[in-house]
Design brief:
The complex is a heterodimer. Chain A is mainly alpha-helical. Chain A has helices at about 5-20, 35-45, 50-90, 100-105, 110-135, 135-160, 175-180, 185-225, 235-270, 275-290, 295-305, 310-345, 345-365, 380-400, 405-410, 410-420. The two termini of chain A are about 25 Å apart. In chain A, about 30% of the residues are buried. By secondary structure, chain B is mainly alpha-helical. Chain B is globular. The chains are: A mainly alpha, B mainly alpha.
Chain lengths: ~425, ~400
C-alpha cells in the first residue's frame, strides 16, 4: 500500500544514506550478534585451541544467538503493543496527526528500544568474557586483542549507519584493517607495529566511551524532545536548549574519534614507504567516498560481455571502448575525491548538520518537512552528472556494436547492462 | 535536504520496490526444480527426460539470477553513486534520468523474466513433445502462483488479502477418489477462465510502475489548473489500474463460483469444508493465532491420559472459543469483503490521489475510517484469542500438576 507517510520517507532516507556511506546496517536493528560465526571460526582456526574448548566456545555462541533472538522478539512484541496502543489513541484523537509530535507520547517504543539495546550489550559482553575465561595462555592474550579489534570494527560500522549518529565526518574507517589489507612486506609491518599498537589502544579507549554513552545519549535526547503541547512554555524552552546541548555533545564525541583517526592517517602516511603510501591513500579515498567507487554499468557490461558468446571483432571493440572509458572515469573519480574533500570541511558539515537539526525540529512540531532552502551547491554535483554522461556515452557505443537481432540473442543480464540508459 | 521533488520518487520507490536501492523483491516467483521433477515424472516416459528438463531448468535459473544481479547493481549505481543526502550532494538535473532508469530497467527485467519462462516451457515441450496440454497446465499453474499468491504486491490496495488458487486448494483438500470428472471440469473451467485475466493483471502490473510515476507528474502538473483537468488526466493515466481492479474482481468472482460448484458436487464433510474455505481464506490472514489455538485445543482434547473432568472443561472452553470465533467471522468477514469490494477500492483510490495532489500537508498516512474500524475489530478478536490461550494454558497446567501428583 502506498502510504506517503513522512515517517516512511525518513526511513528510506536513513537507509539510503547508510547505503551511500557503504554500510549495510545498524546492529541494534537486528537480532544478530556483532561478532559473527565467521569471526569466531577464524579465531578458533588461528589459535588452534583444543577440541573441547572450541566446542564449548561454539556452544556459548549458540546460546548468545538464541538469547539475542529471544530479546529481539520481546522488543518486537513491545513495539507491536505500542503500535496497537497508538492505533487506539488515533481512533480517540482523530484531530491529531501524530501523538509523538503533539504530546510526546510514544506508547513505550523508546523504552522498549533502550531495554533491547541494554540487553544486547549485556549479552554480548557476557559472551566475550565467557570466551576469555575459557581460554588460557597465548590464546587468551590473542582473544583480548581480537575482541578489541572486533569492537572497533563493529563500532565504526554502527557509527556510519544513519545520519543521526554522526556529524558527517567521514574519518571512521578501521586503519588496522586497511593496513592489513595492503599485504605489506614483513619488514614494513614490523616498522609499523608500534604505531598499530598505539592506534589500537587509543582508539579503543575512545570508542569504548562512545559506546558506553550511546544509549544514555538517546535516552536523554528522548527526554528532551519538545512536543507541540509544550512549545512556548518554560518547560518546552528548557527542553529545547537541552536538546541542542545533547546533540552538540554527541557530535563532539563522534568528531573526537574522527580527529584521532585523521591524526593516525597522517602518521601512517608518514611511516609508509613511497609505493605503499600511494596504495594506502587510494584505499583511504575509497573508504572515504565509497559511493564514488560503486561499480558502474560499463564495468558490469564488460565483465558480462567477456563471458557472453560474441564475435572476436565485437569483443575487441568492446575492450577498446572499456579502456577509453576507464581512463576518463578514473580521472573523474580523482577530481570528485579531491573536490569533495576540499568542500566537506568540518565547519561546513557542522553548520549543515545544525540546519538539518532545525528542520527536524520543525518537523517534530508540525509533522511537515518544510521546504528549507538547503544548500544545493555541492561542487561535485556537476562531476557526478559528468560521470553519468560518460557512462551513457560508453554504453551507447557498446550497444552499437550489435545489430538488433544480435542484441536479442544476448543474455538478459547483458541486455540490461547495455541498455539501462534507454527508456 | 528533503524537497518536495524527492517525495514522489522516494514514496514510489518504497512502495514499489519495498526498499530504496540495491534490493529487489520482484513480484515474480521462480519455477523450482522440485516442481519440474514432479511434472516431468508424470508426463514423460523416457528416463533421460528428467535430466533434460532439469538442464533446461538450470539454464532458466542461471539466466534469471544473472539478470537479477545486474538489475541490483544498476540500481545501486543509479542511486548511491549520484546522490548522498547526508552530504547534500544531489544533482537535481539527474532526478528524471534516475527515475527513468529505475522504472525502465525494472520493466525490462520483468519482460525478460517472462521471456525466459516461456523459453523454459518451450524446452519442456521439446522434452515431452506429446504432452502439450500438461505443460500448458504447468505454465498456467506458474502464472497463478505468480499473480494469485502475489496479488498483494499491488501497492494501491488499502488492505492485503491474497486471492485463492482454487486448483491448489482442491489438490490439498479433496481426496483423489472424490475428484470426479465433474470436479475436474469445474477446476479446468476456472483455470481457463482466470488465465487471460491473470495475464492482463500481470501486464498491468509490469507496465504500471512506470505509468504510475508518469501519472503522478502529470497529475501534479495539471492540478495547478482546474479540477476538471486533473480528473481527465487521472482517468487517462490510471485507466489501466482501474482495469486491473476490475480484472481482480472478476478473478474473485470466478473463485467464488468454482468453490460453490465444488461444494455442490462433493459429499459431507468436504462440501462444508469447501463452503467454509472462502470465508476462512479471507479470515486466515487476520487469524493466525486463532488457527493455531484451534489446533492446540483439538490436540489437548484428544490427549489419552487426560482426566475426564479436565477433558470436559477443555471441551467447554473449545465450544466457547468456536462460538466466539464464529461470531467474530460473521462480523469481520463481511467488513473485509466490503473493503475488498470494487466500490470501496475505487473510492479509496480516488481519495488517495486527492491526498497526494494536495502536496503538503497532504503527505500524511492515509487510513480511512473503515480500515481503522476493521483493524480495531481485528485487534479485539486477537486479544480474545490470547485470553482463550491463557485459559487453555491454565487448564493444561493444572491437569499436568494433577497427573504428576
Amino acid at each position: 500500500v502506498i502510504r506517503p507517510a513522512v515517517s516512511a520517507i525518513i526511513s528510506v532516507l536513513v537507509f539510503v544514506s547508510a547505503r551511500a556511506a557503504g554500510q549495510d546496517r545498524y546492529s541494534y536493528n537486528y537480532p544478530d550478534a556483532r561478532v559473527t560465526r565467521e569471526d569466531l571460526e577464524e579465531f578458533i582456526t588461528e589459535v588452534a585451541i583444543h577440541e573441547e574448548e572450541s566446542t564449548f566456545i561454539r556452544s556459548l555462541y549458540a546460546d548468545l544467538t538464541n538469547e539475542l533472538k529471544e530479546g529481539h522478539q520481546e522488543y518486537r512484541n513491545a513495539v507491536q503493543r505500542a503500535g496497537e496502543a497508538e492505533q487506539r489513541w488515533r481512533r480517540d484523537h482523530p484531530e491529531s496527526r501524530n501523538a509523538l509530535a503533539d504530546t510526546g507520547e510514544d506508547f513505550g517504543r523508546a523504552a522498549a528500544y533502550y531495554n533491547w539495546q541494554r540487553t544486547y550489550d549485556a549479552l554480548e559482553a557476557r559472551f566475550l568474557d565467557d570466551v576469555e575465561a575459557v581460554l588460557s595462555g597465548a590464546a587468551r592474550d590473542l582473544w583480548k586483542v581480537r575482541r578489541i579489534d572486533l569492537h572497533r570494527r563493529n563500532l565504526f560500522r554502527d557509527m556510519r549507519s544513519g545520519t543521526s549518529w554522526n556529524s558527517g565526518r567521514r574519518s571512521n574507517m578501521d586503519l588496522i584493517a586497511v593496513v592489513h589489507d595492503l599485504q605489506l612486506s614483513p619488514e614494513v609491518m614490523a616498522s609499523l607495529s608500534e604505531l598499530l599498537e598505539h592506534y589500537r589502544a587509543q582508539m579503543h579507549e575512545m570508542i569504548h566511551d562512545w559506546r558506553e554513552r550511546s544509549i544514555d545519549h538517546t535516552e536523554r535526547m528522548m527526554a528532551a524532545f519538545v512536543p507541540a503541547n509544550l512549545r512556548g512554555t518554560p518547560e518546552g524552552d528548557a527542553r529545547a536548549a537541552r536538546w541542542n546541548e545533547i546533540w552538540d555533545e554527541w557530535f563532539t564525541m563522534g568528531d573526537a574519534i574522527c580527529d584521532v583517526n585523521d591524526e593516525f592517517i597522517a602518521r601512517f602516511q608518514a611511516a609508509l614507504p613511497e609505493a605503499d603510501r600511494t596504495r594506502f591513500e587510494e584505499e583511504i579515498s575509497r573508504l572515504w567516498f565509497p559511493s564514488v567507487f560503486i561499480p558502474c554499468p560499463i564495468e558490469l557490461a564488460i565483465e558480462l560481455l567477456r563471458q557472453a558468446p560474441v564475435g572476436d571483432d565485437s569483443r575487441a571493440a568492446a575492450e577498446s571502448i572499456w579502456s577509453d572509458y576507464r581512463e576518463q572515469r578514473d580521472q573523474l573519480r580523482k577530481r570528485i575525491v579531491t573536490i569533495s574533500g576540499q568542500f566537506e570541511t568540518s565547519q561546513r558539515m557542522s553548520d549543515l548538520q545544525r540546519q538539518y537539526r532545525d528542520m527536524q525540529d520543525e518537523y517534530s512540531r508540525t509533522g511537515i518537512w518544510s521546504n528549507y532552502d538547503m544548500p544545493d551547491d555541492h561542487p561535485a554535483n556537476p562531476l557526478f552528472m559528468e560521470s553519468r554522461r560518460l557512462a551513457e556515452r560508453a554504453a551507447r557505443n557498446l550497444r552499437a556494436l550489435f545489430t538488433d537481432s544480435e542484441f536479442a540473442q544476448l543474455p538478459l543480464s547483458v541486455q540490461l547492462a547495455l541498455e539501462w540508459w534507454k527508456e | 535536504m528533503i524537497r518536495p521533488r524527492h517525495i514522489p520518487t522516494l514514496a514510489l520507490t518504497l512502495a514499489v520496490a519495498s526498499s530504496a536501492v540495491g534490493q529487489i523483491r520482484p513480484p515474480y516467483q521462480r519455477i523450482t526444480a522440485e516442481e519440474v521433477i514432479i511434472v516431468v515424472d508424470s508426463i514423460a516416459s523416457a528416463p533421460s527426460a528428467v535430466d533434460e528438463a532439469l538442464a533446461a531448468h538450470a539454464r532458466y535459473v542461471e539466466a534469471i539470477e544473472a539478470s537479477t544481479a545486474t538489475l541490483r547493481a544498476l540500481r545501486r549505481w543509479n542511486y548511491d553513486h549520484h546522490v548522498d543526502l547526508m552530504y547534500f550532494r544531489d544533482p537535481e538535473a539527474l532526478t528524471d534520468a534516475q527515475s527513468a532508469l529505475f522504472f525502465a530497467t525494472e520493466e525490462k527485467w520483468q519482460w525478460g523474466a517472462r521471456r525466459l519462462e516461456r523459453a523454459f516451457f518451450d524446452d519442456l515441450r521439446q522434452v515431452a513433445p506429446h504432452q502439450g496440454a500438461a505443460i500448458d497446465a504447468f505454465a498456467r499453474a506458474q502464472r497463478r502462483r505468480n499473480i494469485v499468491d502475489l496479488y498483494g504486491m499491488f501497492y494501491y490496495q488499502p488492505v492485503y488479502v491474497p486471492l485463492l488458487d482454487v486448483v491448489a486448494f482442491a489438490r490439498d483438500k479433496i481426496p483423489q477418489e472424490l475428484r470426479s470428472p465433474e470436479v475436474e471440469r469445474v477446476l479446468l473451467e476456472y483455470e481457463l477462465a482466470i488465465d487471460p485475466l491473470l495475464m492482463s493483471i500481470d501486464n498491468c502490473r509490469i507496465l504500471g510502475q512506470r505509468r504510475w510515476s508518469r501519472a503522478y507528474d502529470a497529475v501534479k502538473e495539471s492540478s495547478e489548473g482546474s479540477p476538471v483537468v486533473f480528473d481527465d488526466v487521472r482517468r487517462q493515466h490510471f485507466a489501466p489500474f482501474i482495469g486491473a481492479f476490475e480484472d481482480v474482481g472478476r478473478v474473485r468472482a470466478f473463485e467464488s463460483r468454482a468453490l460453490a460448484q465444488l461444494a455442490s458436487l462433493l459429499p459431507q464433510p468436504f462440501s462444508e469444508e469447501i463452503r467454509a474455505a472462502h470465508n476462512s481464506h479471507l479470515f486466515d490472514w487476520i487469524e493466525q493465532e486463532g488457527m493455531a489455538l484451534r489446533q492446540r485445543m483439538e490436540a489437548a482434547i484428544s490427549g489419552d491420559d487426560l482426566p475426564e473432568d479436565t477433558r470436559a472443561r477443555l471441551e467447554a472452553l473449545n465450544g466457547r472459543f468456536l462460538a466466539e470465533r464464529h461470531r467474530a467471522m460473521v462480523s469481520l468477514v463481511p467488513q473485509l469483503g466490503d473493503l475488498l469490494g470494487m466500490d470501496y477500492l475505487e473510492g479509496w483510490y480516488e481519495e488517495l490521489i486527492r491526498v497526494w495532489q494536495m502536496e503538503q500537508p497532504g503527505y500524511v498516512e492515509y487510513r480511512p475510517h473503515e480500515i481503522l474500524q476493521f483493524e480495531d475489530d481485528t485487534r479485539k478478536w486477537r486479544e480474545r484469542v490470547r485470553e482463550f490461550e491463557r485459559e487453555l494454558n491454565d487448564l493444561i497446567g493444572a491437569a499436568e500438576e494433577e497427573i504428576d501428583q
